[in-house]
Amino acid sequence: MIKRELDEKLIQQLKEKMDEGLLPQWVITDPDIYELEKEKIFAKSWQFLAHETELKEAGSYVTRWMVNDPILLVKNRKEEIKAYLNSCTHRGTQLCTADRGNKKTFTCPYHGWSYNLDGDLVGIVAGNKVYGEEMCKKEWGLREVPRVESYRGMIFGCLDPEAESLEDYLGEMKWYFDMMLGRGDGGMEVIGLPQRWVAKANWKSTAENFAADPYHVQTTHRSTVEMGISLKIRFMLGMDTKLL
Where does the Rieske domain start and stop, copy by copy (predicted)? Predict the structure, then answer.
């Protein structure tokens, strides 16, 4: 009850500021706001995971993240793409630490439990002696991401089994995906491993920076103008080069 009251108070404070046309800076750094976002946004939203060309054949897998949850994406023998928590159901150890690979089974490096491409528990080291004959393996399969759908080769996952379809969720954004990814009949292909950077920043800052803040370009990216490598961008943005 106390947590709910605190959550409602935070949301009300934020609403009052936004009604004034303001976004308070504490929204970016407040840990309670972030916990609310994980519950009310990321637990219910579709999140991009991978591209279909990264999983070309049965046994192919890649490892990704959904906020703090490690995810294992696999193509099974039926050519279906499955997504599981990259976590052994025994003691929670991460099954795969590599970015990608190809396996017939996934074996936990801690106690040796193994799972097939459909997430079924198929092997337990000394299982009969440790757990007895009555243990039901079907109850200990990998925990599956409830919703996995693709659009233009892009694979998304959602933790909410009752969420709207991916196409409905994307809405008018599909037009941009069609324009970027539907240029040829063969589609697009991912080459090489993903490049990752870790930055101490809030996700909202990144989203705003790329989606709604061209104002920062003249200052943050001034060096590209001075080096003469962003001439076309200046004209596209309608910027006066004399001012730069």
Answer: 47-157
